[in-house]
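Hallway conversation turned thread

IA: we were arguing at lunch whether anyone had actually written out Ferritin-like fold-containing protein end to end. Turns out nobody had. So, for the record, here is the sequence (248 residues) and right after it the structure tokens. Reply here if something looks off.
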Amino acid sequence: METPDNATETSDEAPVPTGIAAQDWATASAEPQYRAAVVDLLGALAYGELAAFERLAEDAKLAPTLGDKAALARMASAEFHHFEQLTDRLTAIEETPTAAMEPFAKPLDDFHRQTAPSDWLEGLVKAYVGDSIASDFYREIAARLDTDTRSLVLSVLDDTGHGNFAVEKVRAAIEAEPRVGGRLALWARRLMGEALSQAQRVVADRDALSTMLVGGVADGFDLAEVGRMFSRITEAHTKRMAALGLAA
């Protein structure tokens, strides 16, 4: 997963971590509910990275040029490396990676089945918009994690280059055929709604994750902040649409 360099802005005045966010894994994981939430989070991320690898490999088959095919293959390789980092971490904390991923396989598979792109450009927009929404969501959660887990999560959310690649290709396609923009704008709006609904469903189905999100094991995070979080994700989506040359 990724968030392209031009998608979001980082504040120079980030709050000083407190509570769990100021602890390391050894300390924070003594709380059983927090540990369960982290296992869920790593499992969801790991399956998401595996799915991203599979989708990029499929998208490479539709690439119009050999250069595009090679670029997507490199990005797919980067996603698989992220997947390995997450499964290695689960193993290191004595959890079985497949068991951690299992609860998230069907919801994510359903999302991808419901949002299957019909062509190369829709595939690019899906990866750029859908994956970036997921990355924004996980970055929000990362701010409430222990220092060790936060470092890992942020590292696997690093941009693989797909964001800027998608922007370049989509803008070029719209410039060549302006009417393509309307179709892709509708597609991106559908993806936004589906991605947010899917994220909310996944969290709601996992007690430990939902408790973390509303502040049960992560101080300073309440239901009002959840609303503000989704507002920030929506704002970032609007900026990405502008980068693509599409109306939000």
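OS: looked through it. The mean pLDDT is 85.
IA: good, adding that to the notes. DSSP finds ten helices and no strands in the chain.
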